[in-house]
Write a structure and sequence with these properties.
By secondary structure, the chain is an all-beta fold. It is built from no helices and 17 strands. Strand 14 and strand 15 form a beta hairpin. The mean pLDDT is 90.
Length: 196
């Protein structure tokens, strides 16, 4: 029985443990335990102590995002063998971020300004867990999602910033830990013209 990964286990990312439970009803010891991901090479599985639990660590970043499969095979000392297959889904793609406002192209800014960004998780493995931004080296602040769109906003008072060039970082991290951060520079000008 393949315990991990499985088709019902959600999405997988990074290093995962491939593990399975193997029993021989007649009581003969299996001598070979191996696994194969997609059409890759067969690799050995390790028997855990004297138990019937076998495992190996596998790096899913070597796989394409989407559905993959794993074969696990066992053969006993007299040549009886069995192979079981499971499909599983991989997502190692970080969310894509586009900063739409608070940009160099939109500068200069004054007064109250809306920061907005488009954040898209192409594989759609579930809601991103964090959407935040940071101006210069100040604290990170959570962005607010607009309805069910990919639009995320927050309002900033630029009068708390000095005139001149500043930067904004926008970061997003999905439920698997895939994360991305994008930076934009922008210019603030809250100084009224001088008349003499």
């Amino acid at each position: 029985t393949i315990n991990n990964p499985t088709s019902g286990g959600g999405y997988y990312a990074g290093n995962i443990e491939i593990n399975a439970t193997i029993t021989d009803a007649v009581g003969g010891d299996a001598t070979t335990y191996r696994f194969q991901v997609n059409s890759g090479s067969w690799q050995d599985l390790t028997l855990s102590g004297g138990n019937d639990y076998i495992y190996a660590v596998f790096d899913t970043t070597t796989l394409p995002d989407g559905t993959n499969y794993v074969n696990v095979t066992a053969e006993d000392e007299v040549g009886n063998n069995n192979t079981v297959m499971e499909t599983f889904d991989v997502d190692n793609t970080m969310p894509a971020i586009t900063i739409n406002n608070l940009t160099a192209a939109g500068s200069p800014y004054a007064g109250s300004v809306e920061l907005n960004a488009t954040i898209v998780d192409a594989d759609g493995n579930g809601d991103d867990t964090t959407y935040r931004y940071q101006i210069d080296s100040n604290d990170w602040i959570t962005l607010t999602q607009v309805g069910a769109t990919t639009w995320y906003i927050d309002t900033n008072d630029t009068t708390f910033l000095s005139d001149g060039t500043h930067y904004v970082n926008v970061t997003a991290e999905d439920t698997l830990g895939n994360n991305n951060t994008v930076m934009e520079t922008f210019v603030v000008d809250n100084t009224a013209p001088t008349i003499t």
